[in-house]
Every structure is written in structure tokens, then in C-alpha cells.
Amino acid sequence: MPPPDSQAPARSKTAVDRLIARRDVHFREKTPWRMLYETVARSEDTGVVRLSYGQARALLDAHTAVGGVPGAGWDLHECRHASLTHLGEAGASLVMLMAKSRHKKPENVRKYLHPSAESIAEVTSLLAPGDSRR
């Protein structure tokens, strides 16, 4: 057998599990680490796609299909739509939603904004006479 091509140490399973479980590291940062660990994929840009868009779509559909019926599950775009909707509900501004989603036209982002009665009242109060926040 040829000698191994790397002298990288093999980390213990406990060390890998601790790394993935760390709460001070954001989930999106840990996801590629976990994927590399679980798939044993090379970390270089080999030019080979490990998971195609079609495969990702099929897996999401399979895991979310109502009654196990193929095609009855979520679409990948629904993840993006849900994320933007949740950000809008949490009070993110139109400008922030445009920056996050990289939309160029405000009219394409407005559908994600559903201001509550409280937030409308708060904005209206900014114009009230004697408001100390001015």
C-alpha cells in the first residue's frame, strides 16, 4: 500500500462530538464540518459536486412529504421564503431583508413584511408632540 498522503492526526470521536456540540459556534459554521466528517469528503474544491441541487431537493421532499407521497414535501425555495418571512415577522426592516436576500427591488421583498399593530403604533408615536426620543 502507498503511504498515506497526509500526516493529519485522527481526532477522537469525542473531540469531534464536542466540536459539533459547541454552543458558542453558529450552526451554519458547524454544518460543513459535520458534513465533511460524515461524508469523508475531501475539503478541496475537486470540481465534483457532493450533493447536487436535485439531490438536495429530493431529500428535502422525502423528509417532509405529507403521508410519504413523493412530491408532497417542501421545496428548497420554501426554506428561503420561510427564513425571510420569519425575519420580517421579527421586525427586520425592508433594507435588511433586501441585504440578506440580495433582492434588488423593494417590491419583491415587501411580501415578507407584516408589521404588527404594536409596531405601527410605535412608529406613529415617534411623531407625537413632546416625544422625548426625538
Please tell me about this protein's structure.
The protein has helices at 13-21, 27-39, 53-64, 76-89, 94-101, 117-125. It is mainly alpha-helical and 134 residues long. Helix 4 (76-89) packs antiparallel against helix 5 (94-101). The protein is extended and about 70 Å long.
- How far the N terminus sits from the C terminus, by CA atoms, comes to 75 Å
Q: Give the strand tally.
A: 0
Helix and strand pattern:
HHHHHH
Percentage of helical residues? 40-55%
> What form results from the Cα inertia axes?
extended
Structural class: mainly alpha
Name the average pLDDT: 77
Radius of gyration: 23 Å
- Low-confidence runs (pLDDT<50, min 5 residues)? none
DSSP strand (E) fraction?
under 5%
Total count of helical runs of at least 4 residues: 6
For the report, how would you describe the main beta sheet?
A: none
Key descriptive features of the protein:
134 residues, mainly alpha, extended
